[in-house]
Amino acid sequence: MKNLFKYLFFLIGGAIWLSVLIFSIYTDLANVYGYNPARIEE
Fold it and tell me: Where are the transmembrane segments (predicted)?
């Protein structure tokens, strides 16, 4: 039972860490390519 709890905790922590990592990479790419709808003004 203790092993199952440890596995579940690791799985939830890994999912949160992975989502944060993907979100940070996505925002970095958006900043690099200048993807900002307010900035598109002729």
Answer: 7-26
